[in-house]
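Tutorial handout. Part one gives the primary structure; part two gives the three-dimensional structure as tokens.
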Amino acid sequence: MDELDGLASALQGVAGELRAGSHPVRALESVAAESPAGVAQRLHALAVSTRMSGGAVEAVGARENGEATSYADLLLARAATAWSLTAHHGVPVADVVEALHRDADAKAHAARRLDAKLAGARAGAAILAVLPVAGVALGEAMGAAPMRVLTSTAVGSVVFLTGTALILGGVAWTSRLTRQVVP
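Part two.
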């Protein structure tokens, strides 16, 4: 999400520079100088490819046909395509960059909202993972000696290993589910 926020801000800056009359390469380099490292690297690659008049999509490291490694790469591939259209057909690139900014900003906002909605699921999973440990600690504090039962008897060992496997599996499953949802 931070990368997407940084990219949205950078695209807004590039669009502003272009509206002010800056050359596209100068606009990219100016905004890249003030951007976070990951965004700056992508903007520099786009500036180099724009300066060389071609190969912009390959320089950014993504294509619109689905080979992008992240949404940020896809957006910059679209920006590279916009630069190519500008170079070949005279299409005003500032409008396209502003549209890309709005797209990145909307995607980042949706990702933040979704992340906030998933916070409850993550907190619930963390509590459920800690409860058995708290129960064993409480049993030890009360003198019931659950650790002795769990580690010294055959049934206790099976219960201990099964419970540990289920807890770790639940945490991994919840983590995987929430990672798949958030971009």
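Part three, for discussion. Residues 93-142 form the longest helix (50 residues). The chain has a mean pLDDT of 83.
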